[in-house]
Write a structure and sequence with these properties.
Elements (H helix, E strand, L loop, with lengths): L1 E2 L2 E2 L5 E3 L8 H9 L5 E2 L3 E2 H5 L3 H6 L9 E6 L3 H12 L5 E6 L4 H4 L11 H14 L4 E6 L9 H11 L3 E5 L13 H8 L8 E4 L5 H11 L3 E4 L9 H11 L8 H19 L3 H4 L2 H7 L7 H7 L5 H14 L17
Parallel strand pairs: 3-11, 4-6, 5-6, 6-7, 7-8, 8-9, 9-10, 10-11
Antiparallel strand pairs: 1-2
Helix pairs in contact: 1-11, 4-6, 6-7, 9-10, 11-15
């Protein structure tokens, strides 16, 4: 698969951009486990052009993360163009436009998935950004605003004509949010349409290696993007790659292995954001790293309430010792390959 001049391996795995989740520490962990493409947390164009410190920090990248894209969203075309030019200074490999975020505070203001209610403006904005940069431009969107307004094949054709180099489709509408099942048949309609020549990346409900295999084998997508299922489970990338390359289901990591990953992640988060913020933003990960362990409630409470780094590292070490001999096959069904 290629995104403009960027050459990716066969069946590439993308880490989906998620606000306050896919920061640099988490991206590093996912890269170690085999994620092929990284994208920043989404960045508001208005915040970026006002030199918002948080927005600027989201664009900081290093060589470990490449190929890397900066994802932008907004409602004003002029602001998106200016933000694109500013993003170029961070030297990403591509610019990604967010036309898919369903959050009310974004979509109902016309940005993110809100653009699905104004297709002409979506295309105008895309064309303006493409013309403003020499970097490849990609788009992430959804099937439509709701089931009565699904026009994804038409939208894909227009986005391609506007100059994008790849398209990621989340197989739900904005109205669905994250409920119900992703409709991969609709994604496949775009991929196999005779007028679509750009790569199509599928997103939605990839929680097990078998889901990834089905996405490639049955629906023919060029790549897959994985989001929520990686939270606290970055090894899912390795599990998927092992399955795709060898046809083998990877065993669940031992608890002590998860402890070592969690400690490394926590260390990186504190180093990157300091305390207490680096700890606050680790909580969703820490609780998920050990999802499914029995009699874990009191330890989980400690992980998601303490602001003392030493106490957290001590708690993680204790978890490793307490569950050293735990049989991973006894974990609840939603702990590893389910979400």
């Amino acid at each position: 698969m290629k995104i403009g001049p960027i050459v990716l391996p066969d069946q590439p795995l993308f880490l989906a951009p998620m606000e306050d989740v896919t920061d640099q520490p988490f991206r590093h962990i996912c890269k170690e486990y085999g994620s092929d493409v990284m994208i920043s947390e989404f960045i508001a164009s208005e915040g970026l052009i006002r030199d918002c410190e948080k927005s600027m920090k989201k664009m900081q990248i290093d060589g470990l993360e490449r190929p890397f894209g900066v994802q932008l969203y907004g409602t004003r075309i002029e602001a998106m163009v200016e933000a694109t030019k500013m993003a170029e200074a961070a030297r990403p490999d591509f610019i990604d436009l967010n036309f898919g975020c369903p959050a009310k505070k974004i979509a109902h203001k016309g940005a993110g998935a809100g653009m699905l209610q104004n297709i002409p403006r979506m295309i105008e904005m895309t064309r303006a950004v493409v013309e403003a940069t020499n970097l490849p431009v990609t788009v992430k969107t959804r099937l439509g605003w709701d089931h009565q307004s699904i026009r994804i094949v038409e939208i894909a054709q227009k986005l391609q004509d506007a100059g994008i180099q790849a398209l990621t489709i989340h197989g739900r509408t904005k109205a669905q949010m994250y409920q119900g099942r992703a409709d991969w048949e609709k994604i496949a309609e775009v991929k196999h349409h005779p007028d679509i020549s750009i790569p199509v990346v599928g997103n939605g409900d990839i929680t097990r290696p078998e889901d990834a295999g089905k996405a490639f084998d049955d629906y023919g997508v060029d790549g897959i993007m994985i989001g929520r299922a990686t939270v606290g489970k970055p090894w899912l990338f390795k599990a998927i790659r092992t399955y795709l390359d060898e046809g083998v289901l990877m065993e669940e990591p031992r608890v002590w292995e998860k402890v070592e990953v969690a400690k490394k992640h926590l260390e990186k988060s504190i180093e990157w954001k300091g305390t207490p913020r680096g700890i606050y933003e680790m909580r969703r990960h820490l609780s998920n790293y050990f999802k499914g362990l029995p009699h874990f409630k009191h330890l989980r409470t400690r992980l998601v309430t303490s602001l003392d780094p030493n106490e957290l590292f001590d708690t993680l070490d204790y978890i490793g010792e307490k569950y050293a001999d735990f049989d991973a096959s006894k974990l609840k069904s939603d702990s590893f390959f389910h979400y």
